[in-house]
Amino acid sequence: MTEYQFNDDQLKWLAALESGDYEQCRLVLYDGVGYCCLGVACKALGLEPEEHEEYGLSSYSFDGEFELLPESIAQRLRLRSNFGKAERDHPESHSHCTQMNDTRGWDFNTIAARLREEPDVYFFATDAEAAAHYRNH
Question: What is each CA distance from 79 to 60, 69, 85, 111, in whole angstroms?
Answer without folding.
Answer: 22, 10, 7, 14
